[in-house]
Amino acid sequence: MKKIEAVFRHSQLEKVKQALNDVGVKGMTIVEVRGAGKQKGYTETYRGSKVTINLRPKVELKTIIPDEMVEQAVEAIVENARTGQIGDGKIFISNIEETVRIRTGEKGTETLT
Ligand SMILES: Nc1ncnc2c1ncn2[C@@H]1O[C@H](COP(=O)(O)OP(=O)(O)OP(=O)(O)O)[C@@H](O)[C@H]1O
Ligand SMILES: [Mg+2]
Fold first, then answer.
1. Average pLDDT, the chain
2. CA of 58 to the centre of ligand 1 (A)
3. Ligand nearest to the CA of 42
4. What pLDDT, on the 0 to 100 scale, is given for residue 111?
5. pLDDT of 7-62, one tens digit each?
6. What lines the ligand 1 site, CB under 6 Å?
7. How many CB atoms neighbour CB 34 within 10 A?
8. 46 C-alpha vs ligand 2 centroid, how far in Å?
9. Residues in contact with 57: Cβ distance below 8 Å, sequence separation at least 6, in sequence order
10. Domains in the chain, ordered, with CATH?
């Protein structure tokens, strides 16, 4: 199982959610976040002035999915979160050891699909 954490623009959330639904992603958590990447939240470089990090609002979508869904899910996010402008966001992928559905006590991938 893998955890996909995708940070991207609010404007793309509905498209991304729809595309993930279409590839069979069932559960997700959305968090409102503020962040910055390579440009530190600025669209122009301020040379000579003291650079501070300008945190901009984004959404973070987290979903835990079976390994075999990762490729399609990442493609769905990339294609639907992209506008082509700087600040489109990033996807982080990590391993998940175990999941438990609290209602039934089921464990593992059967809790995800
Ligand atoms: N290394 C990182 N660690 C954690 N969060 C990050 C990291 N890089 C980017 N983010 C998150 O992703 C959001 C969007 O980053 P952004 O798309 O600007 O990345 P970038 O590397 O600057 O790429 P681009 O050149 O396309 O702007 C940030 O606001 C931040 O929340
Ligand atoms: Mg950036």
1. 93
2. 10
3. 2
4. 94
5. 999 999 999 999 999 999 999 999 999 999 988 888 766 665 666 888 999 999 99
6. 7, 33, 35-39, 56, 58, 86-90
7. 10
8. 15
9. 10, 32, 33, 34
10. 2-39+56-96 (3.30.70.120)
Give, as residue ranges, everything with CB less than 5 Å from ion ligand 2: 37-39, 86-87
- Ligand found nearest the CA of 35: 1
> Do 11 and 103 meet the contact criterion of CB atoms below 8 Å apart?
no
Backbone torsions φ then ψ of 65, nearest 5 degrees: -135, 160
**Inter-CA distances, 36 with 24, 49, 55, 59, Å:** 30, 18, 5, 12
Helix 70-81 crosses helix 13-22 at what angle (to 10 degrees)? 150
pLDDT score recorded for residue 86: 93
pLDDT of res. 49: 62
Compute, in angstroms, the gap from residue 35 CA to the centroid of ligand 1. 7
**Quick one: how far is CA 39 from the chain centroid?**
19
Q: Per-residue pLDDT for 82 more than 70?
A: yes
> How close is the Cα of 68 to the center of ligand 2, in Å?
30
